[in-house]
Design goal:
Rossmann fold, 37% helix, alpha/beta, 268 residues, single chain
């Protein structure tokens, strides 16, 4: 494993290092090695690696991409971490990416897209994809409060953020499937939830990796204006999938976004 060559450590991280944590990583490998870059999928807050293992990991592998999905500490089957910070999540991503056999493409969803944006300043990714990115700030909180006040307001005071079926999925996903997915959601650390609102802008990326931003104009977590702002940071416009919810990788038309991502990578 090659790790030191891709690690960038800040002085403050020497003084207050992130403690190690056991991390869940799921993977799917192509039948034939085609030399395509590995993909590292990073779920949003409350989500685990299972959200990508459901559809996207296997589909990416079928198209020749080695695919990996990480559960941030405190999520999925990773080690519990109730006091995890945004910096700890960034550390998880850079450490796992550094251990992959080749320079990876980082794919972050929701708040995981913010984690990926920060990780790009520490890991020289081949490319990055930000799926329905939650870049934080009070505007994002206002949108969440309007669509789901009961599930959002407790998070402001340190309680769990509870996303509901209407926020996460489009109307075509069968109700039993939607309920089953919602029941599997966990929660992020209290400090990380607060930092989602107060975190500074991500530092410039190492190198100049291409960045794709995609989402749905019908997302009840990330409004269209936020998608446009996120994409504008990287000099592009967002790729939109109308009729889908926030969790594009689980929604009924899940294949459309992942095929768009893989097609975009194939053109690079």
């Amino acid at each position: 494993m090659q790790t030191d060559r891709v690690r960038v450590v800040r002085a403050r991280e020497w003084a207050d290092p992130v403690r190690p944590a056991r991390r869940e990583v799921r993977s799917a490998q192509p039948e034939l090695e085609e030399g395509k870059p590995p993909l590292l999928f990073v779920p949003g807050f409350g989500h685990g690696a299972w959200t990508f293992a459901e559809h996207w990991l296997g589909h990416a592998a079928q198209r020749g991409f080695p695919a990996y999905a990480l559960s941030l500490r405190g999520h999925g089957e990773s080690e519990p971490a109730p006091e995890a910070t945004l910096s700890a999540y960034v550390h998880d991503v850079t450490q796992v990416a550094a251990g992959l056999p080749r320079q990876a493409v980082l794919v972050g969803h929701g708040a995981g897209a913010l984690v990926v944006a920060h990780a790009l300043a520490r890991y020289p990714a081949r490319a990055a994809v930000l799926v329905a990115p939650v870049f934080g700030g009070w505007a994002a909180l206002g949108s969440a409060l309007r669509s789901n006040p009961a599930g959002t307001l407790p998070a402001v005071f340190g309680g769990p953020l509870r996303l509901d079926r209407r926020q996460l999925f489009g109307p075509d996903l069968p109700e039993p499937q939607a309920r089953e997915y919602v029941s599997r959601l966990g929660r992020a650390g209290r400090r990380a939830q607060w930092q989602l609102l107060t975190a500074p802008e991500p530092e410039p990326a190492v190198g100049t990796p291409p960045v794709l931003v995609l989402g749905s104009p019908d997302d009840r977590v990330v409004p269209p204006a936020a998608l446009t702002r996120a994409a504008g940071r990287y000099g592009a416009a967002p790729l939109l999938f109308p009729g889908m919810g926030h969790d594009l990788m689980l929604d009924v038309r899940w294949q459309e976004p992942i095929d768009a991502i893989l097609d975009w990578l194939g053109k690079g």
